[in-house]
Write a structure and sequence with these properties.
- The complex is a heterodimer of chains A (290) and B (131).
- With 290 residues, chain A is α/β, with parallel strands linked by helices.
- Chain A has 2 domains: 55 residues, ATP synthase, gamma subunit, helix hairpin domain (Helix Hairpins); 211 residues, Pyruvate Kinase, Chain: A, domain 1, CATH 3.40.1380.
- Chain A has 7 helices and 6 strands, in the order ααβαβαβαββαβα.
- Chain A starts with a helix and ends with a helix.
- In chain B, strands 1, 2, 3, 4, 5, 6, 7 and 8 form an 8-stranded mixed sheet that branches.
- Chain B is globular.
- The chains are: A alpha/beta (290), B alpha+beta (131).
- Strand 6 of chain A pairs parallel with strand 5 of chain B, so a sheet runs across the interface.
């Protein structure tokens, strides 16, 4: 049985842990708001881009001369997986879920005898997957401060590799931000390009546009941009998701610490009481013996 | 001129401007063009350059890079990969952009990519000269 002093020490240490987790929860909720604002500010651009591209791309569906970024290069042998995770842990299952999804996909591809290369954005995914997929490692990039530059850097890299014919299919793993409590790990196919068809189908399709230069050239110059925008959007959603997940995880931790303090305090008091009773009995029986 | 043109300038990071203006001069890929209200629908890509917005006696100038412009029934929307108010544009920033572009030019493998970067590098140098 732990002594009174031990119990006291444990209560003190759990209390300070609780203070830390509570502070982290508050920090995460402040950052979450900022991350959400950033994600919302970026939405108009991504939506317009998606809308315009899907109407442009509709014309080129199943056409032989379609740009390769849109339809892929026809092969399905070498896969590039981009795994985007957070830089920090302590955010529940957030990083693990993305890594798990990517791992399942990679294993499936490997079992079909395909080549897989993995590119990591963010440290955590790399740490989880590095052992198992050591031979598939391509490169990693750490995100200190999320800005469009990061997405551009990754995008240029991917485009360069695609142009040099180093892979056939590219997909991105990230976590879709549904709300503070739910983030869904998602796979998005970057090459061949995939569009959100629900995005604005309103006036872009009906109006007859003058294209300058040609429709095809616009499509070709927009596809690389779109790829970067898709990466950027995914990173923003990841940022918001990480903070949401961290907030929930830290909230739970704070509550657990509270429960633990309650339990420890109870047994501390019980033991203190027992000791007092014992001392009293000793005095009384001593007095009676006289 | 009673009617005004609805103009939106959007960058990936945020919506920079959304207001009714008189006219906008856009640096299109095949030359600058001015847009007034009731312009015919058109779509074009952007090159690196300056975008001028004028509204009554006010006028604003933005540095834009990459992206495209769309003129529709609802007005003009410019989706630039980068858009910065000229007042906030510094020589250091452009120098840095030039450096980045030069590095990208050296790193690029495909010819088509190279040509595109070389073109925008050229434009950046022009912008730098105006500062």
């Amino acid at each position: 049985m732990a002594s009174l002093k031990d119990l006291k020490n444990r209560i003190a240490s759990v209390t300070s842990t609780q203070k830390i987790t509570r502070a982290m929860q508050m920090v995460a909720s402040a950052k979450l708001r900022r991350a959400q604002e950033a994600a919302e500010a970026a939405r108009p651009y991504a939506e317009r881009m998606g809308g315009v591209l899907s109407s442009l791309a509709a014309a080129y569906k199943d056409v032989a001369g379609a740009p390769k970024l849109l339809s892929g290069n026809g092969a399905d042998k070498r896969h590039l997986l981009i795994v985007a995770t957070a830089e920090r842990g302590l955010c529940g299952g957030f990083n693990g879920n993305i890594a798990k999804k990517a791992k399942a996909h990679a294993l499936e591809l490997l079992s079909q005898g395909k080549e897989v290369k993995i590119f990591y954005i963010g440290k955590k995914g790399f740490e989880v997957l590095k052992r198992e997929f050591e031979s598939n490692y391509l490169d990693k990039i750490l995100v200190e401060k999320l800005s469009y530059d990061v997405a551009e850097q990754v995008g240029n890299r991917v485009l360069d590799m695609f142009a040099a014919n180093e892979f056939d299919v590219c997909s991105l793993f990230y976590s879709k931000f549904e709300n503070v409590l739910t983030q869904t790990p998602t796979r998005l196919s970057l090459i061949p390009a995939e569009f959100d068809d629900t995005a604005s189908e309103d006036d872009t399709a009906s109006a007859s546009y003058d294209y300058e230069p040609s429709q095809e050239e616009i499509l070709e110059s927009l596809l690389p941009t779109n790829l970067k925008v898709q990466i950027f959007t995914a990173l923003l959603e990841n940022g918001a998701g990480e903070m949401g997940s961290k907030m929930t995880a830290m909230d739970n931790a704070t509550r657990n610490a509270g429960d633990m303090i309650d339990r420890l305090t109870l047994s501390y008091n019980r033991q203190r009481q027992a000791q007092i009773t014992k001392e009293l009995i000793e005095i009384i029986s001593g007095a009676e013996a006289l | 001129m009673a009617e005004k043109l609805n103009f939106e300038l959007v960058s990936p990071e945020r919506l920079l401007l959304s207001e009714a203006v008189d006219t906008v001069v856009v640096p299109g890929a095949e030359g600058d063009f001015g847009v007034f209200v009731n312009h015919a629908p058109m779509m074009t890509t952007l090159r690196v350059g300056f975008l001028d917005v004028s509204n009554g006696s006010d006028s604003d100038r933005f540095f834009v890079k990459g992206g495209f412009a769309e003129v529709g029934e609802k007005g003009l929307s410019v989706l630039a990969e980068q858009a910065i108010k000229v007042a906030d544009l510094t020589a250091d920033f452009v120098d840095n952009e030039i450096k980045v572009a030069q590095a990208a030019l050296e790193a690029a493998k495909a010819d088509s990519v190279k040509a595109a970067i070389a073109f925008s590098l050229n434009q950046l140098n022009e912008v730098r000269a105006t500062l």
